[in-house]
Specification:
2 copies of one chain form a homodimer. Chain A has 10 helices and 7 strands. With 246 residues, chain A is of the alpha/beta class. The longest helix of chain A is centred in the last third of the chain and has 17 residues, at 179-195. The interface between A and B is large, with 65 and 65 residues. Strand 5 of chain A pairs antiparallel with strand 8 (167-168) of chain B.
Chain lengths: 246, 246
């Protein structure tokens, strides 16, 4: 069983990073990645708060962008406190744990994104995920701090471990697409759409790109299917793909 | 539904009391009792850490002994990190939540005891309880701080009464696409691909069309997204859609 990676985007307080590390170790997770930690890394406040967890896990990895942090992953969930106006599957923390373990049984590398303390994840980061985790809590008082959100998410993953039957992909022999393959495909499509004046106004463009990414990530493509989709773009535009098509 | 009371025995750090209060409010609990809080009460560090939870719940009650704090309760569970040499029912946090709700349905007043930060509950306090809660965690790194232990216990109580479906339909305002809309979209795409010589040989064509349909149907498109996809085809081919695009 390979546990999901936990990726904190723009974390501010070292204490919260340490609490997240401790919660991860409590629940058997050990791949912690930080994107642009405000106070740099290593961070003495994080060490103190981790109760030794940071010393027991592999070195924390630091990245400049969410996309780099997601390199090599196949299935990504984004935690959000508030509903977003995006068409994406929504999982409770418990349902997410089951889904993550199904993906793992299928040899997919999985990751969970957490946003900054106050602001949460940007819509662009959410758009990079295949689905969203929302933890069911008292609607009149639902704000969790970062360490607590990581704890509840990891706790559900640990509780789900024992009785999840392995389940394989319904169809086909092809491998699931990696994050890089999807980004490469999405960027190529977006560039072609730009060149073909698809985005009516510059104001609409970011929203349209987000919607497009949400839609195509939901298809949960295989490696082979990304090549097919490159082939579609090449056929419709008459331009060769950077990959060998199909 | 009456939630269990949370009783902290000999709590030391105000921060932990505040974190416990916040966790309780997150999960719809509001009866917090303290036995011999080290720094007295009220406690500014607790107020700061509670993120407003202490202001939203009834006043915290302070007691000199566990027996006094438990006056009037019918069913009491004690949280313990390590097994005790006592003949007592042991519940996971999840099983405890179900049991507490059964007792509540039978009009029993319920409470959960938590011990001091390092020492935990004394054996005498555990002996006052009807059963013990042990939270299943990584056996090599199972120590939780007090606020986290309260959070996980209260979280399970909230989940046990919650009827949020574990996974909802994709969120967002748009209606799901109808079968006809999908077929119209797929046939238009397939015709364009045919016209652009995408299908290398006639023999391959039926299989490729099947794979394409499988991939795009998995995206579970909304009505709006089918229009976006028509817009993509129009943009890339330079041909207007039979629909008004987007």
């Amino acid at each position: 069983m390979t546990a999901p990676a936990i990726i904190l985007i723009d974390p501010q307080m070292g204490e919260n990073i340490g609490a997240a590390a401790r919660a991860m170790m409590n629940c058997g997770l050990s791949d912690l990645r930080l994107v642009r930690p405000r106070d740099g890394w290593p961070n003495p406040a994080a060490d103190a708060m981790s109760s030794g967890a940071l010393g027991k896990m592999p070195p924390v990895q630091i990245f400049d962008t969410t996309e780099e942090a997601l390199s090599g992953f196949h299935f990504v969930l984004a935690t959000t406190a508030r509903p977003r106006d995006m068409t994406k599957s929504v999982f409770t923390a418990r349902a997410a744990a089951t889904e993550l373990q199904k993906r793992d049984a299928d040899n997919q590398k999985t990751a969970i994104l957490f946003g900054a303390e106050r602001a949460g994840l940007s819509n662009d980061d959410v758009a990079l995920a295949h689905g969203v985790i929302t933890i069911p809590l008292n609607p009149d008082f639902s704000s969790l701090n970062l360490g607590q959100a990581v704890l509840l998410t990891c706790y559900e993953w640990y509780q789900a471990q024992d009785d999840t039957p392995p389940q394989s992909r319904p169809s086909g022999n092809s491998e699931p697409a990696t994050h890089e393959q999807m980004v490469e495909l999405l960027e190529r499509l977006e560039n072609e759409l730009e060149a073909h004046h698809f985005f009516r106004t510059d104001g609409q463009k970011p929203i349209m790109i987000r919607n497009l990414r949400n839609m195509l990530l939901r298809a949960d493509m295989t490696d082979q299917e990304t090549r097919t989709f490159h082939g579609i773009i090449s056929a419709l535009t008459g331009k060769k793909s950077p990959l060998s098509d199909k």
